[in-house]
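Record pair follows.
FIRST:
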Amino acid sequence: MTDPADLRAKALEIHRLLCAVHGCPVPYFHSLDPLSELVSSLLSHRTRNAASGAAFKALRRRWPGGPDAVERAADWAAVRDAPTAEVEAVIAGVTWPEQKAPRIQAILRRITERTGGLSLDVLNELSVPEARAWLEELPGVGPKTSAAVLSFSTLRRAALPVDSHHHRVAVRTGLIPASLAVGPSHAVLAAQLPPEWDAQQVYDNHEVLMLHGQRCCYYRDPACDRCVLLTLCPTGQALHPEREEEERARA
């Protein structure tokens, strides 16, 4: 079994190498309020970014927020109270709109019941573990969604989301075993990062591992010949032992 201290050191070296490639700090890609980020994350499940982004914009066009709602994207009370069939039609481009429309409305109703309105300001008063637990009590919200809401939204909290690309890189480099699913991997990978890291550093870690999975460590035929992590990656070394020897000779 690998020593946890060794894994933490490896995680930091992977972070350093990938930051050199992709540039850290990585700019946040938008500034949605946490409720809007929650809906955006729910739409993105098993859906390409272009399709979920289009569905999110369609909700804003159909039920626009007020003029003071900077990047709020929609009148979520109107979405909550609309006929479910209409919401489903608006988000038809995502995967499983027939499931996501009623789930989003159920979550909006549950938030209204718990807070007396449609706001996630309560999360500001909670620690990151408490805020994630609060969110994960909502129907259909798991570790990835709770972390995304806290990290990507204007809350800017130090929570680590793990998507399929991030997870693949972590498995192949040996940070986590292949038997560990995406959901449980959140806690393990987060524990490998320094506890004093701020929100930007944790966000950077997710972004650079995700980008590496998208641009180099492909699901099929990973580009090990140009991978900066080859000397740290048992999978790449097994696939290309000659490349690993060349990298060691140059080191």
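SECOND:
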Amino acid sequence: MDTYEATYRQILTQITQGPLVHADETKAGVTKGAINGGGHYMWVFTNLTSVAYVHAETREAVILEEVLKGFSGVLVSDFYAAYDSVPCAQQKCLIHLMRDINEQVCKNPFNEELASIAQGFGDLLREIVETIDTYGLKARHLRKHKRSAASFITLECKTEAGSVLRKRIEKNKGRLFTFLEYDNVPWNNNNAEHAVHAYVKLRNGLIASTPKGAKEYAVLLSIQQTLQYRGRNFLDFLRSGHTDIDE
């Protein structure tokens, strides 16, 4: 496995030195030799051309501080609080917010205030997606939605359920519509979630794993997924004897 350690580091460096990082995490499925009851995690860092999996013994923000140290681009993530500690521009996944809003509507079917919030957010997203479908993720076209986005963020709620939702939106107001100001920054975290699913398939096929094994899987899967993103064959790369992912 040492043969491809440099390849793995190359991929991780390319991601963290770029303008965009998608991040997510999932349980690592480590059951052999695990510390503290097996609370290990596999973190995923990806952009549009590369994927890196990082094994960690915790879900705490320390791994983000290590991997994303010096990162100055835009971080796209879900609403897990650990991501808030990264000192860079951030975009929260609006699909997650949509799910949360819809969940509250289902729990409070007669709350007209929540229904109005859901309707307004849906209308706003549809308008934004129409612009993206026409012009792509280009800030010069997306900025026209800033006024509508600002109006949504400044919700006034009177019901208890509406106020809870408003507080969450208020807390993240600087991270909900960042993509309107940048080129090629998605409004969702689908890219990282896709990479997580690739790892989950591997994890679910394993009876058990040690911390050492999880790290080795992270190296190989990072290379395999990165090559897949770039339209290249994993086995051909291994047979070539190359270790430079760009060769």
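COMMENT: The first strand starts at residue 20 and ends at 27.
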